[in-house]
Amino acid sequence: MIMRILGEGQYEITEEHVARLNQLDSALQTAADAHDDVAFTTALSALLDAVRTLGTPLPDERIAPSDLVLPEQGTSLAQVRELLSDEGLIPG
């Protein structure tokens, strides 16, 4: 799976890490539903850090379609709420 972090780049995520990313996405969804800015900022940071840590960065010269696009660090709760579906940012 290829995930893009806006303004940063793409990461290849193996299937073995998707469950962990879904857990972090659930925390982000919970914070967004509660309109809790502090918990949201923490959850978004944790999700993006996990993608960076668990994923393999794709070289800038390799352009591949992204399976998922994640907001960049610093994106507001209001902006992310517009992107969230019933399944969060990461379906599954």
Structure description:
It is a single chain. The chain has 3 helices and 4 strands, in the order E-E-H-H-E-E-H. It is α+β, with helices and mostly antiparallel strands and 92 residues long. It has a 4-stranded mixed beta sheet, with helices on one face. Strand 1 and strand 2 form a beta hairpin. The mean pLDDT is 89.
Helix content: 40-55%
Low-confidence stretches: none
Strand percent estimate: 5-15%
Secondary structure category? alpha+beta
How is this structure best summarized?
With 92 residues, this protein is α+β, with helices and mostly antiparallel strands. The protein has helices at residues 18-33, 37-54, 77-83; strands at 2-5, 9-12, 56-57, 68-70.
List keywords for this structure.
alpha+beta, 3 helices, single chain
List the helices and strands and how they pair.
Blueprint: E1 2-5, E2 9-12, H1 18-33, H2 37-54, E3 56-57, E4 68-70, H3 77-83
